[in-house]
């Protein structure tokens, strides 16, 4: 083959090879681009990175209530869930996730989480026409009446005075009450904790669901069990320490 023919063949090969720019050595593929954290919109990834540590894989609950509980999703509207994610709950372990409150999530990402919770785990027919107690209330309950409500609906599992029983642990533990808000207590009473075997407001006593007043009063009683100064030693411990000095 003559030299001109070789050169023409080489030029044809180069032209053909260069027509597909994707095959050029060192050129990154379109799917290899790094996505900035603020642009991640996939619900599964957002939930895993921001929620699963406390609320459990697949929304099944862990240290905190399961966000995948369809009863919870039926009583808490989108605005409420968005607000809690964005601003957190002061005085509890729930932090603020919105960038506007010092967190890492954009408004669009928070919306994606709320939408994903609904699309993955909500069941519109879960309450079958039943009317649950309101998610929140501005009414102050009657703690004395709440003690009686607790005895009827809760003591069989949590024990007399809420100090623990054969089926559930203490619900008046000082550390626990210091870490949960009144709203969290109310949510747990209404929606239950399926992951822990705790029933919702309809099933504590068969055929006798908790009324809205019952829920408000028992939460008032639980809140009244909080210590004024959480984390301080028990009186007996202070006396023992005083004896050693």
Please outline what is shown here:
The protein is mainly alpha-helical. The protein contains twelve helices and no strands.
Account of the protein in words:
The protein has 245 residues and is mainly α. Among the domains are: 38-121, Cytochrome c-like domain (Cytochrome Bc1 Complex, Chain D, domain 2), CATH 1.10.760; 143-224, Cytochrome c-like domain (Cytochrome Bc1 Complex, Chain D, domain 2, Orthogonal Bundle), CATH 1.10.760. 46% of the residues lie in helices and 0% in strands. It has 12 helices and no strands. It has helices spanning 3-18, 43-50, 52-55, 70-75, 78-87, 107-121, 143-153, 155-158, 174-179, 182-191, 212-224, 235-244. Helix 2 crosses helix 6 (107-121) and helix 5 crosses helix 6 (107-121). The N and C termini lie far apart (105 Å). Residues 236-245 have low confidence and may be disordered.
User: Which whole number gives the mean pLDDT?
Assistant: 87
- Number of E-type strands: 0
Helical segment tally? 12
List the secondary-structure elements in sequence, H or E: HHHHHHHHHHHH
Strand residues, percent:
under 5%
Distance between the termini: 105 Å
- CATH-defined fold name of the domain at 38-121: Cytochrome Bc1 Complex, Chain D, domain 2
Going by CATH, the homologous superfamily of the domain at 38-121 would be: Cytochrome c-like domain
Low-confidence stretches: 236-245
CATH class of the domain at 38-121: Mainly Alpha
**Gross morphology:** elongated
**Whole-angstrom Rg:** 28 Å
Could you say what the CATH architecture of the domain at 38-121 is? Orthogonal Bundle
Percent of residues in helices comes to: 40-55%
């Amino acid at each position: 083959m003559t030299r001109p023919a070789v050169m023409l063949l080489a030029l044809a090969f180069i032209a053909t090879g260069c027509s597909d720019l994707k095959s050029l050595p060192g050129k990154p593929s379109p799917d290899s681009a790094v996505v900035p954290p603020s642009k991640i919109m996939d619900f599964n990834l957002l939930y895993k990175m921001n929620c699963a540590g406390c609320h459990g894989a697949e929304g099944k609950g862990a240290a905190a209530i399961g966000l995948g509980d369809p009863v919870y999703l039926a009583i808490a509207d989108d605005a409420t869930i968005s607000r809690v994610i964005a601003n957190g709950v002061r005085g509890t372990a729930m932090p603020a996730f919105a960038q506007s409150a010092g967190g890492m999530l954009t408004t669009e990402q928070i919306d994606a989480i709320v939408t994903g919770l609904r699309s993955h785990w909500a069941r519109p027919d879960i309450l079958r026409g039943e009317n649950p107690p309101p998610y929140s209330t501005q009414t102050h309950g009657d703690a004395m009446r709440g003690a009686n409500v607790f005895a009827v609906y809760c003591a069989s599992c949590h024990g007399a005075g809420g100090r623990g029983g054969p089926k559930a642990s203490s619900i008046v533990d000082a550390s626990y009450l210091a870490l949960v808000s009144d709203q969290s207590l109310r949510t747990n009473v209404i929606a239950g904790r399926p992951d822990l075997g705790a029933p919702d407001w309809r099933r504590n006593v068969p055929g006798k669901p908790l009324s809205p007043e019952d829920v408000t009063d028992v939460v008032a009683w639980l809140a009244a069990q909080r210590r004024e100064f959480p984390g301080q030693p028990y009186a007996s411990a202070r006396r023992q320490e005083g004896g050693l000095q």
